[in-house]
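Researcher: Hi, I'm a grad student and pretty new to this. My advisor asked me to get structures for two proteins we've been looking at. I'm not sure of the right format, so I'll just paste the first sequence and hope you can take it from there.
Model: That works fine. Here's the first sequence with its structure tokens right after it:
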Amino acid sequence: MIALTHAPLGIEVLRRGIIFIDIAVAQIAGLGVILAKIVFHDPSLYIVQGVALSLAILAGSFFYKMETIVQESLEAVIGVSFVLAASIVLLVLSGSTQAGEDLTHLLGGQVLFVTWDMVLSHGVSYLCILVLWFFYPVCRSGFSFYLIFAFALTSSVQLVGVYLVFSSLILPALAALNTQRPHIVAWSCGVSSVLLGMVVSILIDYPSGPIMVVSFVLVALSFITGRTLLTRTTTR
């Protein structure tokens, strides 16, 4: 689900040149997850989703407004927003007895502990996003883009963590850059990265999130290297 949904979003992010929006929105949604768990005692999935989504939509609204005001400095504004959200997370967790565990889950995710209930509930959001993205292209522009982005990343950060959200958005898109069928290439790169990372994580018994980030990097590099070599061969 992550690979299929993030590939087209990542391609659009690269096209717009706002690379850090994914990690910023993911971090802000992650802040919402942390706040929901601290404010509410043993919150349900819907409460966590509601708080995280509210903050993500606020962030998207803010970035959309900044796009019309300081377009040249938008990337800097997004970067500062990420640092601010990350710092607030550290401050909020500073008094928690399980701060280290919560921070690890937020950043690195806990992929192997995702339940089928979570898959089904978040899968509905991903399906709606893909339908809107490909059948209603108008949603890719204006505020609709930021809204879709907020919905996608709110689900993703709860499933796989901030680092894997960023990797699964940007690296397949980079692998598909300047290709004739960017979505096919990005999807292939993303799915291959997820499967490889999951298998390696299980075999060596290491955390799945960080392993899958490394997997995304290696697979994307292999795609880019292979395409470069193929291009040089055909032009000779």
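Researcher: Oh nice, that was easy. Here's the second one.
Model: And its structure:
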Amino acid sequence: MKLNYKKINEVGQPLVILHGVFGSLDNWATVSKSIADLGYVVYLVDQRNHGRSPHSDEFTYEAMAADLAEFIADHALQNPVLVGHSMGGKTVMQYAQAHPGIYDKLVIVDIGPKAYPPHHGDLIAGLNALPLAEIESRQQADELFSAYEPNLGVRQFLLKNLYRTDAGSYDFRFNLPVLNALQANFGAEIPKLRTITEPTLFVRGALSQYIKEEDWPEILEMFPQAELVAIPKAGHWVHAEQPTRFVEVLGEFLKKG
């Protein structure tokens, strides 16, 4: 699958960033400029069924890892750094096991390889309940969606995906029917196919519960050289909540030999 992407900078080592579920490359637009300033050519990528990338009824980490492999080959990326947040982190972990020697370092943001139970049911129910053909503004969509999601920040994040179609009505850029049908796949376990010895950084939000202390021994079984950094005052969206500290942590890791 040919994925939509945005390239930032022209000179430096390639660094590919994959967003999380319901997201898009736009989620990383601001922080990516600071990452590029570290000396990298940054590729922001929309994963399948998200953003402006194609839609598909196939939505597994095997398929998304194959998309990443195709992207790296198509753009002839040499020794790239791979960064993935949440769902994107699982895609990176899946890819890394099948393609040793193709990448330099891995950065996994606030997710582990373990299975996570489905927990987006209310959000998806709210998205499905929006009468897109009748909605006349984003404000109206937000008011209706607030019955399902009280957190304004979460609503704004999800409703960024609303856009005007050529017919004048609203629709979502992500493939809601497939995300609805296959939501159990969001948290699927990434099985251990090999031991990954390449340098790997796990970054977690100190306020997030996605990577717990008891998860670390299992993570080290797959990534024995991995480092873990917790960023204070950050939840699951670490890079958005504490962008300056996130870039500092990323830069310190990337400078290491």
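Researcher: Is there anything I should tell my advisor about the second?
Model: You could mention this: Residues 121-183 form one domain.
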